[in-house]
Structures are given as C-alpha cells and as structure tokens.
Amino acid sequence: MAKTDLSKDVAGILASLGVPTACLSGGTLKARSPIDGSVIGMLKTISPIETTVAIDKAHAAFLEWRLVPAPKRGELIRLLGEELRTHKDALGRLVSIEAGKITSEGLGEVQEMIDICDFAVGLSRQLYGLTIATERSEHRMMETWHPLGVTGIISAFNFPVAVWCWNAALAIVCGNSTVWKPSEKTPMTAIATQAIFDKALKRYNEAGGAAPANLSTLLIGDRAIGEVLVDHPKVPLVSATGSTAMGRAVGPRLAGRFARAILELGGNNAAIVAPTADLDLTLRGVAFAAMGTAGQRCTSLRRLFVHDSVYDALVPRLIKAYGSVTVGNPLETGTLVGPLIDKGAFDGMQKALAAAKAAGGTVHGGARMNESDGGDAYYVRPAIVEMPSQSGPVKEETFAPILYVIRYSDFNDALALNNDVPQGLSSSIFTNDLREAEAFVSDRGSDCGIANVNIGPSGAEIGGAFGGEKETGGGRESGSDAWKAYMRRATNTVNFGRSLPLAQGVKFDV
Ligand code: NAD
C-alpha cells in the first residue's frame, strides 16, 4: 500500500480546526492509522480523578443549561450543523485516516452528524407531552418532559464521530450536558469533533446565547475512564456503543445504581434471498452490506440464507464479486474495501475462518493481501463461506468481512434461522412475494430492531429509531421518539376546583 505521511495530514486537519499542535504529542495514548499502521499522535489521557472532577463540572453545566428554553437550545445544535457542513471534508478525511473508511463513507459519517443536527433542531420545538383525560372534575392531568442530567456517551471505533452526534444532538436539545468517552482506537476524530463543537458554542454565545462551559466534555482514555463515567452518581444516563462484552460489563453496573442505559451492542445480521428476489439488486445490496466498511459495521451483513432455486444463479456471482472487489488505501479513488482496524481484528477473522472450515464450511477469500509489507496494516480479501448449517462461528459476531452463506428450501425455516442467534440488531429479505415480505416485518417475522425489505441490513437513516434486541442491548438512538430516553417524564395533575375528589372514589374526610 502506498506510503504517505499521515501524521502531517492529521496535524494539518487539526490545525485547520484550531486544535493546538501540542495536543498531538507528549502523551501515552498511541493514535494510529489502520491505513499503514503508522502512529499519528501520542495523546495525553485523563486520570480517573480528573474524570470525576470533569463530570462534576458537567453537572454544574447541566444545572444552567436546563433553564434555557428548548428552541434556544436547538439554536446551538443548528450552529453545530453549520460548523459540521463547513468542516465536513476535513472531519471526513480524518475518519478515513483513523478508522480506515473509504472516502465516501468517511464523508457519509459526517453527513449523518449533519442530518441528526437538523433532526434535533426541529425536535427542540417538539418535545411534546400529552394532556390526558382525568376522572376528577375541575382537574387537569398532563405529562411534561424535563432535562435529565449529565448524559454519558461511550462510543466504538467503527463510527467514531456519528455515534457521539446521535446522542449529543438529542441530549443537548433535551437540556442535558454530555460527557463523551470515545474509543481509544479513534481519539483524534473525537478531538476534532470537540473542536468543531467548541466553534459552534463560541458563535452561540457571541450571538447572545447562554451556553455554559463544560456543556460538552471529552474524556480521552481507555475503558477504566469509561468505568468512572458508568459509576458516577451524577450521570443518570449512559449511552454505550460497543461489543456485547462491554455491554455485559456496563449494563449491570448502571442497573446497580438505577441509572438508565442505552446499550447499542453487537449484531449478527442476516438476509434471506427468496425465489422471487431481483438478483441484480440483491447482488448489489449484499455486496455493500457485507463488504462495505470492511465488514466493520454493527449492521454488516454476516449471514445469508439463499433459497435452493436461486442459489446457483446468485452465489457464484457473489463469489466472483468478492474476488474482484477493490481492496486498498481508503483514501484512493476506486477503493471499496479499506483495512481492518488492527491486528486483533485480523486474528479474530482468521480464527473464525478456521472454525468455519472445521464446521464443514468452504472458504473463498479471507487472506491478508499485504503480508509482504511487514507493516502493522491489515488488508484482507473479504471472505465468503458456504456453510452446511448455522453452526460453529456463524452464531457469533466476528467484526470483519466474513459472509456465511447457507441454503434453505422453506421460508419458515429461513425465518427461524434469521432469529436463531443471540443478537438482534438488523435483518432483511430480498423478495417480490408480498406475503413473504409482510410476514418478515410482522409479529411472527424478524425479531430484530431493524427489518428491511429489498435493501440490505446496513446503512440506516437517522429518521428512524436505531438499535436492536437481545444481546444487542435493547437501546434506541437517533430518530423517531428516541429522544424520550434523554428526558425525565413527569405526570402532573392540577386541581383548579375548590373540592378534593380522590381517584377511584376513595373517601378520606378528616
Ligand atoms: P469495544 O466494546 O471494544 O469498545 C467500545 C467502547 O467501550 C470503547 O470506548 C471502550 O473503551 C469502552 N469500554 C470497553 N469496556 C468498557 C467497560 N467495562 N466500561 C466502560 N467502557 C468500556 O467495541 P469496539 O471494538 O470499539 O467496537 C466494535 C463493536 O461495537 C462491535 O461489536 C459492534 O457491533 C459494536 N457496535 C455496535 C453499534 C450499535 O449501534 N449497535 C454501533 C457500532 C458498533
């Protein structure tokens, strides 16, 4: 893979955002690029004690911010959206450099941030509560929604900036402050994002706004810092995105202190290809969902159930596409599949392929393509594995481009296979049979948080609520009414009469 000086590129991007160069060196956290494995910065990390102090300050910011009317809070997020538009190219490139996404996906991730800002601005005038019929005369019952407190955000490497924005844009219009612990694998993009937020905040206050300092706080550190966030009593909500293993650690700790959790964990997403599927459309849908982002999306397609009648028409074409897809430097035009994030991801992929073989699978692809470089970058040919059954590693999420293909002959069997894994994030069916399509999205259909027809399982838009069931954690973020998780609901009953009728006819005259 061609060598470029990525650290200079990164320094230039951060300088253009006003980040002092001194921030990029002298620390102990090694920031690296999966493009060539080079070190792009040595970052200072925060200590657990400093983290506690930072959270206390974020709480003080919350106490002020909750008093600002919601539409005025929305103005700050409108300005954030403007700043993101201005710096889209710079931040998108940084996402490509630090997370290894191809250029259009790096830019797409920033576009997702812009989209959620637009959504949140509108939402800032729509934090509606109900007025509810009451059984008592001269009473009114209503529900009101109030800011909740400090919102903790823990994010994964593969969506290094969009996940922050899904949470922060909503949390801030809802009247909360935010404290963000990004992945230790992608700290540079977090620093850039915080600088962009600071620009919006400065403009907001210069225009007469009253946004407090520490409204958005960034914590650079490893999981131990995440643990401080999870345990801090002044953080009533933590939205944590990452592996199911992380969720298993974080969920009970939050429950132990009765804090709220939005858990967005691993997926093991499937698609069914039915006899009536449009195979050209299916091929493109499957290729993007399974190989896009080098299989490192939580919604990446990992299991494909193909009906006997179309197996031979589809699968050889897919194998051919896997063999010819352009893998390489994600910054270069024409590349469709970039690198794996690190050696750990490569080793995990090889282990899963070996297990699949042992379980009777036929593996096509999967080898490292830049072995001879001797460097710390990991480019692989995406793997497609024909499996005799849903067994071995097929039931696990391997965060790499492996697609397991299994034949089926009965629709209900395919549906059962779709649901027969511990995870429940995303799913899809390719069919032109109305009955199958409707059954798939019905009560007896897919048990996932996302169920699509004639598109793959990945690439969600921000307008819908995002998240999944079972070991995916049950959380919902982004659109629809996901905002409710970031607020506290109060039911208010107001007596505007002169008597005191009790509900359910209870008498209590003293
Ligand atoms: P990871 O679990 O290794 O790390 C995610 C984040 O959690 C990091 O910031 C890490 O420091 C922190 N963390 C880990 N253990 C912690 C603990 N005990 N307490 C507090 N914080 C802790 O995940 P990753 O490798 O960065 O990302 C890949 C995983 O994330 C995949 O499983 C993928 O499916 C999942 N993911 C899910 C979604 C979703 O919306 N469902 C989105 C993106 C990624």
Automatic annotation (TrEMBL):
Question: Which ranges of the sequence are coiled-coil?
Answer: none
For this protein, what is the EC number?
A: 1.2.1.3
Q: Which Gene3D superfamilies does the record cross-reference, listed alphabetically?
A: Aldehyde Dehydrogenase, Chain A, domain 1, Aldehyde Dehydrogenase, Chain A, domain 2
Q: What class of enzyme is it?
A: oxidoreductase
Please list the residue ranges annotated as the Aldehyde dehydrogenase domain: 28-489
> Which GO molecular function annotations are given, in alphabetical order?
aldehyde dehydrogenase (NAD+) activity
> Record's family?
Belongs to the aldehyde dehydrogenase family.
The subunit structure is: Homotetramer.
Q: What is this protein called?
A: aldehyde dehydrogenase (NAD(+))
